[in-house]
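COMPLEX REQUEST
Ligand: glutamine
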Amino acid sequence: MTTLRVGVLALQGDVREHTAALQACGVDAPAVRTEEDLAGVDGLVLPGGESTVIDRLARLEGLSGPLRERIAHGLPVYGSCAGMILLADRLLDGHREQQTFGGIDMTVRRNAFGRQVDSFETELRLSFLPDGAAPVTAVFIRAPWVEQVAPEVELLARVPASSVERDLGTREAAGRIVAVRQGNLLATSFHPEITGDRRVHEHFVEMVRDAAR
Ligand SMILES: NC(=O)CC[C@H](N)C(=O)O
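STATUS: Structure written out below.
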């Protein structure tokens, strides 16, 4: 059996953390910077960072078009935070000329939690984890939230109201959607790559494995 190749888009952002998380899941995790790199992977992670910068560099490198095409042909992609923004078909509070790769039929609000707090963490239940599994510690850093989704989009997690009172001090964030899946595309507002909990990456690697069968 050949080892799966799950690349990390390595233009800007926390590439190293995602690479380490993927390697811990037992896959090859090559850096993807060019169209040629992209052609060699079975799946791709879009890291957290700054979505405006990643968008601009991807367009400069001529990667945006080929990436959109592979997404349309079913490439499994996981985006965390800035990566979630890049997977959104529609963006609110984007920078003037900002574009996304798209693929998930959703509207994402950039820096949505930013008015209340720049970053926070909370315990989240993710619907793909087995019943009774421990919650995931979700770290949000100038994070987006999902404001609207098409019926095809599966909701995987919302911000629990209890954590809002405790950690955020505002009710505006309660119930906000922060993890979704549509087909082979997975997105989270938070950063599982920095907690040492591999369950989100393991789930994505399983998605890549299923798609490669
Ligand atoms: N931690 C992050 O990835 C932050 C995302 C950032 N606010 C953006 O707009 O891209």
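REMARKS: The domain at 6-212 is CATH 3.40.50.880 (Rossmann fold). Residues 199-212 form the longest helix (14 residues).
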